[in-house]
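Worked problem 6 (solution included).
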Amino acid sequence: MKSRTRLAALLTLLSLFGDSHAVADSIIVQSTTSTANSGLYDYLLPLFKKDTGITVNVVAVGTGQAIKNARNCDGDVLLVHAKSAEQKFVVDGYGVSRHDLMYNDFVFVGPPTDSARIAGGRSAIDALSKISTHKARFASRGDNSGTHKKEMALWKKSAIDPTSASGSWYLETGSGMGATLNAAVGSGAYTMTDRATWISFKNKQDYSIQVEGDSELFNQYGIIMVNPEKCGQVNQAAARQFVDWMLSAKGQDAIAAYRLNGQQLFFPNAN
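Solution. The predicted structure is:
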């Protein structure tokens, strides 16, 4: 809550000193990094502000940390991608309700040497089994993010515990997706990433997508308003407007319209 208090104080000071962009109303969105790193918010939030006058301040961290921050009442809205953890957040009373918002997918990327021979495959489980069998380097975020949660679920389905090889062929960065991609490229390792981050990643070098198209790699994003009954300082009216706008036809069309390098990064599917 301390960081929220500091942010609120800063916004108040801006208004007191007459900044031409002073905030009349604002919210904090605790968010996964992929939506921020992809540039989606840079595209969406000015549209939302034009419609409502509300400023959205995004805190972009791994999904696990975003949920923890929201549980600490340091936010008005949660936008992440780990459905079971999101549902628990609501069941535990911290969220008002959860809504599907949009989706994309995860992919496996790797070097042209492809020592585990996974390129061209469409099965995430087969890819992980081959990587483990060949003891090929694999860079994991290891940070309890939505991507890391998905990766660990896939390892579990493959009946492999990669953490027993931590520090040898299995490399846990404890970092965000961009840093993990850089670590993978720098060490010749495979890694799993959401497609939006891969498209926006600027240090691909000779790396490419090697496994994609598996239904197991589906990546759903959800949006939740933090419960004002748990967190009394939630800006309920503004938070509700943001959630409703994102789920509306206008918000969904804006998500669908966002492109990077000519490619659509997120596909709306609000429920």
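Discussion: The longest helix spans residues 2-16.
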